[in-house]
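Structure in, sequence out. Go:
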């Protein structure tokens, strides 16, 4: 996965890169893992702890290449820096959905993308 982001002036490259990598993890989680399940009787979440709520772990992450575009934005502030935080997550779940579509031919429009959604409406037996 490659993420190229214009973050204004990069003040600390290591910290900035780590922020973007963390956002990528969040985007993969949003696209493929994270879903709050609610109890139909009372509307309360039933997977409200890490024992029940699935999040991505290190083994789930692709190789990541972060490109920080260092273009100071002095109209924004005197340092030319912008907050990075979660900007790296922008569009990531959609990119995962597009990759799944290009790999499978099936467009999934509800996150997270799970095997049961991909297998829905698939004929039971296929011959090669």
């Amino acid at each position: 996965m490659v993420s190229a982001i214009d973050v204004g002036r990069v003040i600390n490259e290591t910290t900035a890169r780590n922020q973007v990598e963390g956002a990528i993890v969040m985007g993969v989680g949003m696209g493929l893992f994270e879903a709050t399940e609610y109890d139909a009787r009372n509307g309360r979440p039933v997977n409200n702890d890490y024992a029940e709520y699935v999040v991505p772990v290190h083994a789930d992450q692709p190789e990541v290449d972060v490109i920080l575009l260092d273009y100071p934005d002095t109209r924004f502030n005197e340092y030319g820096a912008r907050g990075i935080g979660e900007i790296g997550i922008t569009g990531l779940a959609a990119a995962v959905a597009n990759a799944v579509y290009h790999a499978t031919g099936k467009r999934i429009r509800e996150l997270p993308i799970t095997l049961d959604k991909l297998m829905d409406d698939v004929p039971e037996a296929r011959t090669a």
